[in-house]
């Protein structure tokens, strides 16, 4: 998978994912990353909705089909998208 966001491309392991999520949380806290969904329930709901509709993202942005088997970077992408998905 080749993401347009280089930070997502760096997420290759469980430890990378944990580091990515910790950095993302700090960026949200500091105001360096905008977040539409800041409560747990809204974040989880947005993650579910984005996951259901990611076919369009992959078709139009990534230009690849949605992978059958997610990897660590896909999980990071779901969390990242959930912050801003409306």
TrEMBL record:
Residues covered by the DUF7660 domain: 13-86
Under InterPro entries, the record lists: DUF7660 (IPR056077)
Supply the Pfam families for this chain. DUF7660
Q: What is the recorded name of this protein?
A: DUF7660 domain-containing protein
